[in-house]
Amino acid sequence: MSIRSVTTEQPEKVSSPSVSSAGPTKRRWGAGGRFKHLREKVTTRHGWVGDYDYAWLCMPTAPWRRSRAKQTRTGPPFYALDSELPIILAAASGLQHALAMLAGLITPPIIFANALSLDSKTSAYMISASLIGCGILSLVQMSRLRLFGNYFLGTGLISVVGTSFATLSTANAIFNAMYADGTCPSTTAADGTVTRGPCPDAYGMVLGTSMICAFLEIGMSFVSPRILKRVFPPMVTGTVIVMIGASLIGSSGIPNWGGGSNDCSGRPTSGFFELCPNIAAPRPLPWGSPEFIGLGFLSFVSIILTELFGSPFLKNISVIVGLAVGCIVAGAAGYIDGSSITTAPAITFLWVHTFKIRVYAPAILPMLAVYVSLAMEAIGDITASAEVSRVSVVGEEFDSRIQGGVLSDGIGGFLSALFTVTPLSIFAQNNGVIAITRCANRTAGRFCCVFLILFGVLGKISGVFLAIPNPVLGGVTTFLFATVATSGVRVLSYNRFTRRDRFVLAAAFSFGIGDLLVPTIFTHLFDAVRSPNKGLQGLFDSITIVLSTPFLMAGLVALVLNLILPQDDADGDDDDVVEVVDVEAQPHSKEKELHN
């Protein structure tokens, strides 16, 4: 090196890189400035359309030409949280967010209604209430309201909320306990077939119990996020999410694919549920009939084909495409009962139908565990939303987003019960919409909330959702629940999988998967206790519900073992390391052995 090439001066300070965004960021306007800005936005082409590549968003893709297209065409600009967003793009992105989460919002109330044998009017209302409640509470979650000090309400991101699948899994166990202890009516036929009667009061008990348990998550929001992450690391969170998805596939997805998750899945030889979904359906068939399997498979394959050939817009709503294709074929074949559409009101809103809000004591302990899992989910989903929105995932601002998101989740759980909706959680699938559309602007999120509320207010839409045949719903929800389990696997991938990690996971999955495969193993745990009083029996029922819920059992084992097993800095995979000797790389090794 020449001495002239050596630089003796220190380099000048370089400014920190900033995230580029399309268009100028929002400014603080006065009253006159706001009016002028609004007038320009609604009266100019740039305010309506902007510079976004809408053809890229709507054009289908050919898989074999993707590599060439990536080389010749760049994606649209990225719209950050506070960028100026064209009106049409905001509406289009908001519609994608609404449609992407639609299947996840309508599935829990449909499953709740089927589990409790509720009539079509009540079921349609539950769907509408879910859509309206999620739209309203998503607005709260997307806000970032300063409360006091450094405490906030909401994340300030596109963090939409929906009915938690964790609640769905736990509620099924609670409903089973209510039918078992006589809280809900049921009849037993001569052949031993048990038929559940309508039990709307059970839903009211879940709502009432949820209200009082929501204060646990509200209290957790004021704990430092660093402490929460230490207590609930990815090992615990991932285990819980995997078991939630797996249990829902087994309890709802696959049974509905076969014809129904109600009493017809047992293939009774007589009675109202001798055929699926029941003998009064337009074309009832035995559970597991090839016609049902084919309908579900058609919906499932439609999702795959949409992912393969669809435009970015369609890929974001592939689950809705699967539902639409399945319903079209099912309607043509005569499997759809349109009575739910005709009986549904044209316009509806919250509290058109109400439930008796009461507390079911045996459900308190399981619901507390549900809210702990909701807080764990919220931390992971907020982190993912921040990453895809290109905002910092470290520092005080990010910690305040987690605090505000968990607090909004807890308050949302309390308010959702007042809205006659079960506890809500942040939906992670909307992060994919942000990544594909490159739009993280909260205006798009607000449009999403407007669409959700509109879908809920239009009661006929809920009637349409309720008319979806079980096999079509099963084929789609099986995929939907599998994405939940896949999200858990992704969270688990953050672990180093040391010997300690593998030990904890093995112990957790031993109980979780075992409970999933043999769900009745803990049902008779306290049968030997003679004549327990009412309080003691309630405690036994509560423990049984926890032990009979796979994700609660697995999460509890993972949590306890993660806390009590010591961390070893030298913990590694030495026991699994095998020394590999490349003989070809040592050509003279044999000669050396001969000489020796």
UniProtKB/TrEMBL annotation:
UniProt keyword Manganese present: no
Signal peptide: none
Gene Ontology cellular component list: fungal-type vacuole; plasma membrane
Keywords linked to the UniProt accession: Membrane, Transmembrane, Transmembrane helix, Transport
Keyword Ribonucleoprotein attached: no
Topology term for the membrane: Multi-pass membrane protein
Molecular-function GO terms, alphabetical: xanthine transmembrane transporter activity
Ranges that cross the membrane: 122-140, 152-175, 202-223, 235-254, 292-310, 317-336, 447-466, 472-491, 503-522, 542-565
Compartment(s) of residence: Membrane
Domain of life: Eukaryota
Biased composition (Polar residues): 1-23
Family: Belongs to the nucleobase:cation symporter-2 (NCS2) (TC 2.A.40) family.
Database matches in NCBIfam families: ncs2 (TIGR00801)
Protein name per UniProt: Purine permease
Organism of origin: Trametes pubescens (White-rot fungus)
